[in-house]
Amino acid sequence: MKAIGVIVEYNPFHNGHKHHLDEAKKLSKADCVIAVMSGNFVQRGEPAIINKWDRARLAIENGIDLVIELPFVYSVQSADIFAFGAIDILNKLKIRELYFGSESNDVDSLKEIVSTFNTVEFQTRIKKYLDEGNNYPSASGKTVYDLTKRRFTSNDNLGIQYINSISKLKSSIEPKTIQRVHSNYHDKNSDHASIASATAIRLMDDPFQYVPKNTYEALKGNTYTWNHYYELLQYKIISDPDLEKIAFVEEGIENRFKKYIHASSFEEFLNKVYTRRYTHNRIRRTLINILCNIKKDDYSELNLLNGAPYVRVLAMNENGRKYLNLNKKEIKTPIISKASEINNMMMSIEVRVTEIYDKLLLRNEFKPLIYNKN
Amino acid sequence: MKAIGVIVEYNPFHNGHKHHLDEAKKLSKADCVIAVMSGNFVQRGEPAIINKWDRARLAIENGIDLVIELPFVYSVQSADIFAFGAIDILNKLKIRELYFGSESNDVDSLKEIVSTFNTVEFQTRIKKYLDEGNNYPSASGKTVYDLTKRRFTSNDNLGIQYINSISKLKSSIEPKTIQRVHSNYHDKNSDHASIASATAIRLMDDPFQYVPKNTYEALKGNTYTWNHYYELLQYKIISDPDLEKIAFVEEGIENRFKKYIHASSFEEFLNKVYTRRYTHNRIRRTLINILCNIKKDDYSELNLLNGAPYVRVLAMNENGRKYLNLNKKEIKTPIISKASEINNMMMSIEVRVTEIYDKLLLRNEFKPLIYNKN
Asked: How far is A59 from chain B (nearest CA, A)?
């Protein structure tokens, strides 16, 4: 069986994702598509609009064969760590090709950019831009432009990091791009007939024309935004005198959090604490770590460069199950479904953040969903 | 000026309190009545039904001259520590007499009970009862009965602790009892014409006949119960892997908290975690410390046996102000009103618990209220 991989958040699954998946299947002629998907908190530092179990189900219903959870400690991270965690899992699962969306749709150009990353010149220049007060994405964009005269978008940045991680892991995975159509991930306006960005869709009153029917139905159920957690965040920031022990809290930013925590909404709070030094994404990721009470000490017990010590199935169909069975000897990492099957720091963090995310609904532990494709 | 003291919670101020205050004034012919009052969290381990600033105002409007805050670290405590913190403040303020309600109304009998406390026989017997699985109030009641053949109620227990603290502090304060009328503090039923317990009043839909008009009006405003904080408590218990570092958390009770925290209401949760080994009060006090994130380490930085290092005025009238002015040379402890006037661990805990209590209203810092008596 030929397996390919995609790295996704599906927050929520929309027509653009469906297009990407259909193209990947057509180009690869794969027998099995594996998605590594963020869990309940996503890379931009937000709770996923739909919980991970339902998002995994929607992924299967829309054509994915096997959905693997990207652990929290990789998903709520800058692009390089997010990419590394995801590629490492796909590498462990022995996929042959990775398909990712790209504005430039030019893998060679992205590889060229990656080749500059570990040069002394890159390190010197990026340090200069950072010292001038640029945030990291901006500094690396400027550095790449200086060295290659190529500009890359935030979406291509993820592709670059995937290629970089494949290289770091000396993996045989072949990176492939698929042209992104009609929408930029960060577009808040959407006027194309059937494709809009996830960000735009999350803000729509009625996203009917932009999402498959099952996503549309799911969005009528319980959805989650930072606003639902803002009161808990306020309480946490008020009640914790040791915020500097929380992961990602650096350079006294906790004082800005404490100063503005009485803002009347999360959005107002975020605008008040914003400084040029940090991206909104980085600030939100820091706040997710505060909400979930993840300490610097917790991270120092993990070795992120080793990758996840388990592969957790969130959902699969018969095809996905067949792939795992056929390859079980070659896959050296334990494949699990329930959290209780493994006992380590990475999973204990996963359990905690899942409980916090689910708190409003007070759910019990979910079982992974197993679907038949037809 | 002759000053007398009362130790109160006024949760809320009711006709029984008014009766007590009138009797104390009549018997003492005092020029000034000072109340040491619990702040936003009370001795039985609950948020006060009305915030401390409004309760202080109601106290002044109903005849108290000076309201002093009993710091959180003394108010949410067993009777002995609660009593010690309050008596220490009144002692520092040079009052002559303490008036407290008593079922037995027999000071000599209470003094006799106190005289047994530091005997070897008392210690031996109480240890035996505790080892048999009795909680502390029950064990001490049985011990006192064995040694004196006297029974004492939970309310007399506070009186006993006041007398014991006066003795420990070698204070010249003279303890005086006032007969409690027609109501037991823990009565949930109330059928007397105008007096009901605070507990009963808090549960009433319409307490009109049992409270002064101003209390009645205040009860129509924002009131606070554990239910308002239950979601925050759930979040705290779910998100803190180090609950055993919280003050009062002993003997693995945190595991019971984690086990039952998905109960649908605070009352259901409390009933589930209850064990004979602890009183409901002690469990609730432990939960208040969890809610307010007060650590064992915080307490070890305090020396409760030294008393509070400040006297904080919550409200006063001209009479109270005059008393403080006349005695300012003899009162060696700093008298403050705003939290920012003092910087130590006890006050930083006070600020934190006040912010958490007020969280739902997101209030700014209050200024102390100063009233004219007429």
From this structure: 29
Question: Which of B230, B232, B239 to mutate: most A Cβ within 10 Å?
Answer: B239
The Cα–Cα gap between A255 and A237 comes to 10
Peptide bond between residue A47 and the one before it cis (omega within 30 degrees of 0): no
Which of B41, B230, B238 is most worth mutating to test chain A (most A CB atoms within 10 A of its CB)? B238
Partner B contacted by A306 (CB < 8 A): no
At residue B65, does pLDDT exceed 90? Answer: yes
pLDDT above 90 for A323:
yes
B352 touches chain A (CB under 8 A): yes
Q: Cβ contacts of residue A259 below 8 Å, gap of 6+?
A: A273
Task: With beta carbons under 8 A apart, name residues in chain B contacting A238.
Answer: 352, 355-356, 359
Closest CA to A340 of A308, A312, A303: A312
For residues A208 and A216, what is the distance between their CA atoms, to the nearest angstrom?
Answer: 6
From the list A262, A352, A362, the residue facing B239 with the nearest CB is A352
Catalogue the E-assigned strands of chain B: 3-8, 32-38, 41-42, 46-47, 66-70, 97-102, 174-179, 311-317, 335-336, 369-371
| Interface residue A362 vs chain B (CB under 8 A) | yes
pLDDT of residue B42: 98
Q: Which CATH class is domain B3-103+156-224+308-347+360-372?
A: alpha beta
Tell me whether B343 touches chain A (CB under 8 Å): no
Residues written for chain B: 374
In Å, how far are A177, A201, A210, A359, B41 from A216, measured between CA atoms?
A: 28, 10, 9, 24, 47
Kindly state the percentage of chain A with pLDDT values over 70.
Answer: 93
Residues A270-302 have pLDDT tens digits of 999 998 888 899 999 999 999 999 999 999 989
User: Any idea where the domains of chain B sit in the sequence?
Assistant: 3-103+156-224+308-347+360-372, 105-152, 226-301
pTM of the model: 0.88
pLDDT digits (tens, 9 = 90+) for A68-105: 999 999 999 999 999 999 999 999 999 999 999 988 88
* CB-based contact A352 B236, cutoff 8 Å: no
Structure token pair of residue B326: 């006349």
Distance CA A302, CA B283 (A): 35
